[in-house]
Write a structure and sequence with these properties.
Layout (H helix, E strand, L loop, with lengths): L1 H8 L4 E9 L4 E9 H12 L14 H12 E5 L2 E3 L2 E8 L5 E9 L7 E5 L10 E8 L2 E7 L5 E3 L3
Parallel strand pairs: 1-8
Antiparallel strand pairs: 1-2, 2-6, 3-4, 3-7, 5-6, 7-10, 8-9
Amino acid sequence: MFLVFLLLFHPIYMSYVEIRCNEDRQEYELLLKVFTDDLEKALSNHHSMDIEIYTDREHPKADSLILSYLNKTIKAEKGKTDVPMTYLGREYKPKEFFMTYLYFTFPKDRILTNLSLTSTLFTEIYDNQINIVTYINKGEISKYTLTKYDKKVELLN
């Protein structure tokens, strides 16, 4: 009960990024889990217009608007070079606290060392935004917390 009370008066702003190495396909799979209302707010702020998704008023170019925003706020790098990610799509999860899942891949053959992830996702709208990163490779799991002021993590050295 106390936790519910606390959340009502002190909201938590959080997203979740999972990067998984798929050895069979020789690629990294990136799953981004965000609260849909936070995504809509960030998109509206970024594109200076009201943007809704998963409603009858969904913007006809919602996917390209989402991708434009995400390209500015989350990126994988090899050294100092951006690694292009392929956007596979999105999925609405109303039974999971109204989350949106966004799916990406990028080729593993380009990454042997110096893989890093930078995320400023939603930090322009929430100073206390937390972006949880989970990296899974060969059964080993590493977890990181990124914030507005600590926005980059080295996944491979």
